[in-house]
Amino acid sequence: MNNWRFGIVTDCFGGKIPIEKAIELLSEIGFSDLEIAGGQLVKDMQKPPLPGRIAKRVKSLSKQLTDSGMTAWQFHGPYGSCDLVAGSEKTRLKNVDAYKRWIDIAEAVAARNLIIHIGGRNDLCPGKEPEEIFEKNAASLSALAGYSKNMTVKLAIENLVSGNIDLPDVFNRVGYRISDLKKLIDMVASDKLVICLDTGHANVSNLDIVSAVKECGRLLAATHIQESNHLYDMHMFPFSLRQSKSGMDWFRIFDAFKTIKYPYPLIGECANTSGELPPEMVRFYLKAQKELIEMAMSLRHRK
After folding, report:
1. Which residues of 131-141 are buried (b: 16+ CB within 10 A; e: fewer)?
2. Which comes out higher in pLDDT, residue 77 or 303?
3. Which residues pair with 197 in a beta bridge?
4. Structural domain that includes position 36
5. N or C, which terminus of the chain has less Cβ within 10 Å?
6. 248 located within any domain
7. CATH code: domain of residue 205
């Protein structure tokens, strides 16, 4: 791992603060590596605007990042709203078109990766067998890879959560195992596809995080670094829970990133996306967490 910086998602102050203000505050704290939360740019994630309609704002945002010495390593697109499997072929194609707009926006802000949640959630495509889910996802991703072939941005498919005890009917039958993501990448056969590893998702799905990092290998190009237990997707920072409760040994996890020579900053997710905490408290909290995590990462780097 050549770059031991710790980055953050821009929605860590909640939705009430415009993304431009969030970036300003993050720059003051000392963050230089970001994931842009697409939901901060549009009101309806399922119906992103044509790039021309937000060109002025995107251009201003790109200038702000450049002037602040910040890099948008990742840009997060929609969640379940733009399902790439969908209940019908008409809806699937409509969602693929929506994702093309997200690709355009991510490219416009010079993001290195667009984070994609593949389709297959049970409530969004009921009755479909796993192989059909794979085939529909592959068809959608092939179209998106073809659309972006001359762009810089990569398409980073994220490992999902296998289940949630709060929402027993909303779960993913495929996409939570790293082998599922690699199977899709093999099916599409495009170098535009890479992997985003969400450590919290993997833990809820009872995956071994160290093995998951190593299984991703060179396909790993984006991260969501967060701590959870085996029941809830909690979006907490590393070392927030007792290891006996989370089962996540962060020193071994950092060692795994070092083993595969992961070359990019690790991007953290924060549980304050609803904006429950006042900005002054969030600033203090983020600064302390950044210093703590980078110290831990540095200790493993020198090992």
Report:
1. eebbebbbbbb
2. 77
3. 223
4. 6-302
5. C
6. yes
7. 3.20.20.150
Give the count of beta carbons closer than 10 Å to the beta carbon of residue 184.
23
Number of folded domains that form the chain: 1
Distance, first Cα to last Cα, the chain = 13
CB 54, CB 105: distance < 8 Å: yes
Q: Report the range out of 26-30, 77-81, 120-124 with the highest average pLDDT.
A: 26-30
Question: 38 is written with which tokens?
Answer: 């697409």
Provide the Cα torsion 58, 64, 70, 75; round to 10°.
-20
| Residue 170 predicted with pLDDT over 80 | no
Percent of the chain residues topping a pLDDT of 90: 81
Buried b (16+ CB within 10 A) or exposed e, 64-76: bbeebebbbbbbb
Instruction: Please name the residues in contact with 55: beta carbons below 8 A apart, sequence gap of 6 or more.
Output: 108
Identify the band that residue 301 occupies on the pLDDT scale cut at 50, 70 and 90.
low
What average pLDDT does range 163-175 have in this prediction?
75
